[in-house]
Amino acid sequence: MTVRVLLLPLLAVLQIGADEVLAQPVVIGSKNFAENYILAEIAAQLLENNGIDVERRLGLNGTKISFEALANDAIDLYPEYSGTISEVILADSRLEDWEDIEAALAARDFMLLAPLGFNNTYAIAVTGEVGLEHDLQNISDLKQLPQLRVAFPHEFLNRQDGWPGLKVLYGLPQRVRGIEHGLIYEAMANGQVDATAVYSTDGEISRSGLVILKDDLGYFPEYRAAYFARTDLPSGVISVLSVLSGRIDDVRMQELNRAALAADTSIANVASMFLVAEGLVSESAASPGFLPQLWRNTQRHLKLTVTALVLAILTGVGIAVLVHRHRPLSNAFLYITGLLQTIPSIALLALLIPLVGVGQKPAIIALFLYSLLPIARSTVTAMQAIPPGYRQVAAAMAMTRPQELRYVLMPLAMPHVLAGIRTAAVISIGTATLAAFIGAGGLGDPIVTGLALNDSSLILQGAVPAACLAILTEILFTGLERRLVVPHMRNSGRR
Amino acid sequence: MADTMVATAAEFSSVSLRRGEVLALDEVSLSLPLGQTTAVLGASGSGKSTLVQLIIGLLRPDSGTVTTLGTPIDFANPRPMRKRIGYAIQDVSLFPHLTVDKNILLPATLSGWHEAEKRARLYELLELMQLPAGVLERYPHELSGGQQQRAGLCRAMVLRPELLLLDEPFSGLDTLTRKSIHEQFLEMQQRAPVSTVLVTHDPQEAINLSHGLVVMKSGRVQQYGSVAEVVENPVNEYVRHLCTALEGIRT
Q1: Sorting pLDDT into bands at 50, 70 and 90, what band is A472?
Q2: Main-chain dihedrals φ then ψ at residue A450, nearest 5 degrees
Q3: Which of A99, A293, B84, B227 is the most exposed place for a label (fewest CB within 10 A)?
Q4: Going edge to edge, which strands form the sheet with B8-19?
């Protein structure tokens, strides 16, 4: 009783302490397209400038993974769009008003911070030339122009909230074609297409001089952007981010997206320039240099692969040693590990998210499962290939099972076991680059960002070091074989 | 006390064993004495290797009992019995990943001998089997066939076994090498006698090296007796046929 009374004030002090200084960094996520990266980076730099520790898990692969990450505490906030929240996350398209969405989220302990200002929805765009010629302002104006050449991205052609509904509501007479999203701007610049559907904040719009028509009948749902968080987000974080409310309109977002497309500008630079221009940050934040960034990614990459590999060696070799004498059991074991191998890595990662969230844990589990087959198969095969005479001699020598394993079976199997581990290691280093899609970091980070920005130099910053790691691994294993296997039993370097 | 109880090297009473489809041993009863070399002679598939694998408990009889060194085999814990036996087989005997000295000394290593003890025993055996010390640091595949078999014998002998089981240890050698290794074996048996069961398909080898002779065919003992008894009074056509080639060679 007295102890509890004495402890209460202490606990209260700790509570306050925890509230004032955030014990853990705020983890900021983003999806894997440029605009989402930029908004996440803006939040990250703004918080850092206000003395709050931030951890970045950018480039998560789509809405589902990002939301799972938020729901499972793997991240604390990420930029999201009102339309996506009602359509995908709440799966209730009747929720159109911001207030209704907020209420529905609150019931599930989530919240949206204040809207940033812009609305990144589908929009119908025409080339500047056609717009001038026919004096086009609204989508309704298209009704009079059946000869217009219209091409839409395939997704828009088929989506419920895309062309089918638009055509009916506005009574549009044009025949439309489907086109690859990446080709639209070029086709319009070449005058092959007059009108299309774009995202309203696309950086290419201003660059290509396209004109966006007003959705005068209010067909497209709103996709207003805001930071999406759980309701337990510390109030300090909310108040710092509130200064961004309404600061980024459609045009501003288009400019930022366009800036990010420039080859020599990183996302961090775009965010930093925005914050300085808005007077929200006095000095542009030094973005981490190339080498420290590379070192951090490589370290993380090694941590993922080495952890998974060690677990797979212990499990794979361990189980193989236990079951190799028993054919049906070994076959079952190999069958199961083989089955795991056939699951595509992205699908496996996605399957793991509801179980263990995002970040390093599912990445390590997936790499572990992939490493298991080569290691288990080579160990079982090597053990079963040992001539029975050696086992007889070992048994006749009165060896115990552990002695047999140590003095006879393992040394004889070692060359093949090492070859299996080597294969697993090289596969893991490659596969680990995909871990960036679920926020595990590593050398996949620049690759995923590079893919989102169509920036091949960024992709190479991840791909080249990963390839180097794979080569180093080969060299390491050649050395390891030299230490562990006598010359005439080696796989490689035989003379 | 245990030693005084030991009357035989190995005793089989009505032992039968099926290996797959084949009846490898069919109601075999035998009593192999201590202090002698007994050869088990037969063609391949006659059940002769099965016999020695039963003695050391690598196989378990379907029916009947095997008594090794005076004690029925305890299959739950055969290791104490196995430590008293040296075993060498053809071809795969030496471990390819260990140098020759490590191979020979492996049983001593497993028994926790001290380094000095091991070295002393190693040189004793080298001298006994006339192996040059130069082979010790090499790997088995770098040795000649004769050297490999001698090293295999050394390993079987390292723990000073009470019983030596040799399964075709000298087959696959050329005639000259075989002859010299036979001589060494006989000399070794003179200097440090050890009860031996020798499996062979070669009648000449059996007669040169052993006192007693077990002739096997299709899992059955055809005849068992001293070399002289068998050669002079073969019980049937099969045994007679085996022995005709040997007239005059007999010592």
Answers
A1: very high
A2: -60, -40
A3: A99
A4: B22-33, B8-19, B63-68, B71-72
pLDDT band of residue B246 (cuts 50, 70, 90) is low
pTM of the model: 0.75
Strand partners, A123: A198
Q: Is the pLDDT of residue B51 over 70?
A: yes
With an 8 Å Cβ cutoff, are A396 and B87 in contact?
Answer: yes
B245 pLDDT band, cuts 50/70/90, is: low
Residue A243 CA to residue A250 CA, distance in Å, equals 18
Q: Which of A396, A398, A486 lies at the smallest CB-CB distance from B97? A: A486
Q: Tell me the Cα Rg of chain A.
A: 29
Could you tell me if B81 and A470 are in contact, meaning their C-beta atoms sit under 8 angstroms apart?
no
More confident: A288 or A6: A288
8 A C-beta contact, residue A494 and residue A487? yes
Q: Which pLDDT value is given to residue A493? A: 47
This model of the complex carries an ipTM of 0.88
In angstroms, the CA B104 to CA B90 distance is: 15
Residue A61 neighbours by CB under 8 Å, 6+ apart = A31, A32, A346, A349, A350, A437, A438, A448
What residues of chain A lie within 8 A of the CB of B91, using their CB? 389
By Cβ distance, the residue of B58, B92, B139 closest to A396 is B58
- pLDDT tens digits, A319-332: 999 998 888 999 99
Please compute the mean of the pLDDT values over residues A129-149 and round it to a whole number: 90
Per-residue pLDDT band at A22 (split at 50, 70, 90)? low
User: For A236-268, b where at least 16 C-beta lie within 10 A, e where not — what string?
Assistant: bbeebbeebeeebebebbbbbbbbbbeeeebbb
